[in-house]
Batch of 4 targets.
Target 1
Amino acid sequence: MMPIEPRSIRAGLSFRTCAVLFVFLAALAGWGSLNAQSQKAPPPNCLGGTLDAPIRLEVFSDFQCGWCKAFYTETVTQILKNYSPADKVCVIYYEFPLETHPYGRKAAGYSLAAQHIGKKQWLAVVDALYTKQEKWSADGDIEAAIKGAVSAEDFELLKKNLQDPSIEEAIKRDIALGLKKGVTGTPSVFVTTLNKEQLKVQYLSYEVWKDYFNSIVK
């Protein structure tokens, strides 16, 4: 049985509690002097930053999940704008469509098909899927929702990529990884610093993340 989307942000976890928790973890782990996590090139599902970034967020998300949309539009976009370009935060994205959402898996397929073209096209499709979620979630017309996000040539290539069996296999791999890591709802975010996974959360506002990042990187 697949996980169920959470109805609340995080039961019993207040804004102040999260901020204190993050600062405590930073001090506990001794993050004053940072080293690169890895010399590997970023994987294709890296939204921003590289694996050398001192902080890594692994996000398991469902394009049809309302909380996932809020997390992407209000938080992830700000992280990609303010922290990833300086390689302070690496954001890794995993597809985790829930069975309760009839079009979530289809949307994940479009995302991966765009990823096979290039990062620019992938980011454009991810953005379109989330910002236009209300429309395609109602009528299932994902193609119409993303048609203007990429060039006509790339759009045709994207549709061709959708037929590749590797797309469905990639979705299955992401779901299997999420289940192995204990994902029970979306969005689920795993935080890693200095090659040490520190904690898992389901939803936090950008203000909390910003305080956390600034306690680690300057």
Note: The first strand starts at residue 46 and ends at 48.
Target 2
Amino acid sequence: MFSLGCVYYFVLTNGDHPFGEPFRRQSNIVTGECNLNKISQNPKGILQLINLMISQDASRRPPLADVLAHPMFWAKDKVLSFFLDVSDRIEKEDENKCGLLRRLESNGTAVVRQDWRDHICTHVAMDLRKYRTYKGHSVRDLLRALRNKKNHYRELTPEAQESLGHIPEQFVDYWIFRFPDMLPYTWLKFESVKHEPIFSKYYPKAFSFNEGINGESSIYEDEEDYVPDRLGVTDENLRGGDKSPKIDKNFWRSKSQFKTQKWRQQQQKNHLRENPSNFVSFGTRYSVNSQPVPNSAPSFSSPDTDNSWRVSKQ
């Protein structure tokens, strides 16, 4: 396994050795001083895998069959399938109750590169804002955006389809190129649910990569009495912070037609309750005997200041 790790590094770097030049190589192996800096991109967690394979501690080295289960060897369609399964698994979870979701978000700043919405192209961002809002600091929302664009690919504009490319190869490359830590980070976090049937195909049965790389157990229990700062998650993160993708300062602040329609419907309902003998139609009031009545409806507050429509019915 040690030799295979050295061979992987040799191939990926066109002839370099993880333990340096020949005259110091043997001493570096004895002391465990390796240097993997010649691999600049790590989109599939290759660095972590090689580091385990050449570990001084032989017990940390994964068995050969388990090495082949690593994302380094996944085809693009399997990578895409994994992202979709992850997104569906956590989309409806409550962060206050789901330990898996909290762990996914706890160290996700590097994954989303501060705000993932700043790193997608304009055509994809324009399409995303049509249907819902997304939190730029959230790994879950990044995965959901990926999932939604894949599942609704045929509904995208030609410009957005051209940017994302063909599914699965170019589509996966679009997201991995912009967020190279997303796959290895998410894969390690979700090792804790590898016993679930839908995720068992993505992980070896016995060996724990998360334990080998991070020294953490891959088995967790959700905590019902969760305290936010226990895992470094602030209350602001739980509230959601900035929820709208940013192209420029006004792009995501436009008023939605849905908001105005809901406000108008509520105002009409309120007016009918107050004046049951009349109903409103196209701005003109009619009495019960179908005779027009001068339009003297009281002035209402604007939909921007009136939030009564927001109150959900119990």
Note: The two ends are 62 Å apart (CA to CA).
Target 3
Amino acid sequence: MFFAWWSADSFLGRKNSLIIYFFLTALPLCMLIFLGLKYLIILTALAKFSIAICSILTYAYTLESYNSNIRVTALGITGGIGRCGGIVFPFILIASSDYWTLAPYFILFALAFLSFIVNFGLPRETKDMKLDEIQEFVH
């Protein structure tokens, strides 16, 4: 929690923090694919740490990006989609590991890297903006 708070409130801001932490999620998974299972515990711990921070920052950015009248709905949809992914994705990873041992890590790397790329397209930085300014920016 401290790292999420520090990076989001520092000079980086929310958008850049998301970009950095998605990259820091993808990097250890990519290294794991090329290095094999020798450094499994260290690299997966780094990826888990980074993705936990991404989750916190995603909720904060979602709350700040929408008008007050749809903010709770947007947060609920974001959380619901995340929970559905949390239910379905373990089955996909287990099924993929039958074909290739490192397939789950490749899938997670691909999604983290895709998220890293997509976050460059986020419309605005919400750091140091008041909610009234954000609402004017949305309209």
Note: The chain has six helices and no strands.
Target 4
Amino acid sequence: MEHAKIKVRGRGQAWGPPDFGTVTIDITSKSEVGEGAFEDVALRSRELEVIFSELGIPEEAITSSSVRLWDEDPRYKVNYSQTEIPTEAHAQNRLEVRVPDHETVGRLVTAAVRRAGAKASGPEWQLRAANDLHRDALRMAAEDARAKGEAQADAMGVRLGPVLEIMSSDRDYSGIEHHDYLGRFNEEPGPSMEAAFKIHEGRVYVDASIEVTFSLE
């Protein structure tokens, strides 16, 4: 005879500082003829490499996520004469850069925009898989599930028995209420390696969910 059982879901959240941030740096250019766009992107990308070296960002922290070269026919744009159809050459180099702390993020974004004419977005704050916050959140979720199970069992006049099945998941998020928008650049550029504004890394949280099936005694 199958024993009575109960299934409950527990929830846990753990907050803490991020391990690193990821910044997206985008260099784009266009020219009417020839290899102008390609050469412009290549020159500014070499300046980016200098910036990475000055900031001590290693090669393994940099990923080329999109390198593109293409021609565009302006006939699909408004106000071009059908008899005059110059071809526009486009080039793009997009990099994902893992940065270890908020101070380096500010210096990287400032130098990339001022010295390489790049566009920058981010940072996206993240945790390493080995960060204790993952375990803390799962532990709290398990404690929450047991507390709910005991409360329900007590209300029904029975006791909570052994665990029969466990399903769990966890995911980390940036803490939005602690996450600053990027500020405006100073009108007068300062030293090349000085950040134009402060970046706040705030905290991130791990949201864990656990579904536990208990037997009832």
Note: Residues 175-191 have pLDDT under 50 and may be disordered.
